[in-house]
Design brief:
By secondary structure, the protein is α/β, with parallel strands linked by helices. The protein is 31% helix and 24% strand.
Length: 270
């Protein structure tokens, strides 16, 4: 893995990409923030040695290097999921790459279903904590003590400073921003009525199929991170209706401008 990381970094740096301040991981249907970037370089994932490739149709699969309000950023336009067949180390690999490219802050987004029925479709939820229901973990295996501790603390997995700034910006811009607990599941199927009831009992406010591996990796590396969910469907077990991907993408598209505004303003203040 270490030799692979060196090869990946050498290739990306050879393209003139390094010393970025902010790393961004964009979730399902949430690539609009790229339009805010003054693009210097973009690289398809399939060109990067040892980098996974997005297989989900709504994930473009490009590494975007450029600037937002003068701040240098690296954005992942498309992420990787356990249900695509990748293992947890592959899913978290880009976080390690971003850290080694100089990134000081990691901003994550995802699409999620709301289990909290007080929250509505196309609203945003700031993740304050998570419940990990994946069957594996990106830190399993031999630990590299130079990267982080064997048993990293997760008592404040989502950086308080970043979350506070996001809340302040949302208030200034009059954007409805819910706060809650995100639970990660393997997917790719959506949940049954009984599973939604269980997740609610566990204390989840939203459910999705990503984010947690990247957050675990970021905390291990000492990389401050935050995450916002776009709530794309309402998961009421008593009134559950089938949901198609096109409906999820449509709901994400409604909320995307607000997410873009929040993260663009946050980057400006970092």
């Amino acid at each position: 893995m270490e030799n692979q990381l060196k090869e990946t970094l050498n290739f990306i740096k050879g393209q003139g990409v390094e010393n970025a301040t902010v790393g961004i991981i964009l979730g399902t249907g949430l690539g609009g923030l790229v339009e805010k970037i003054e693009i210097i370089k973009e690289i398809s994932y399939d060109k990067i040695p040892h980098f996974p490739v997005s297989t989900v149709e709504s994930h473009v699969g490009k590494l975007i290097y450029g600037k937002i309000d003068g701040k240098t950023v690296i954005a992942m336009q498309g992420r990787f999921h356990y249900y695509e067949g990748y293992d947890m180390k592959q899913i978290a690999y880009p976080v390690k790459v971003l850290k080694n490219l100089g990134v000081k802050f990691l901003l994550i987004s995802n699409a999620a279903g709301t289990v909290n029925l007080a929250f509505k479709k196309s609203e945003l939820m700031l993740i304050t904590d998570h419940i990990n229901m994946f069957p594996s973990n990106p830190l399993i295996g031999k630990n590299n003590n130079e990267e982080g501790p064997r048993f990293p603390d997760m008592s404040c997995a989502y950086n308080k400073k970043l979350n506070k700034l996001i809340e302040e910006i949302a208030q200034e811009k009059n954007i409805t921003l819910r706060k809650g607990v995100y639970v990660s599941v393997s997917g790719p199927n959506l949940e049954t009525r009984a599973e939604y009831k269980m997740l609610k009992l566990l204390g989840a406010d939203a459910v999705g199929m990503s984010t947690v591996p990247e957050v675990i990796a970021a905390n291990h590396l000492g990389l401050p991170c935050c995450a916002i969910s776009v709530l794309t469907d309402e998961c009421d077990p008593e009134n559950l209706a089938p949901v198609a991907l096109k409906e999820i993408l449509a709901a994400a598209a409604i909320a995307e401008p607000q997410l873009t505004a929040l993260y663009a303003a946050l980057i400006n203040r970092l």
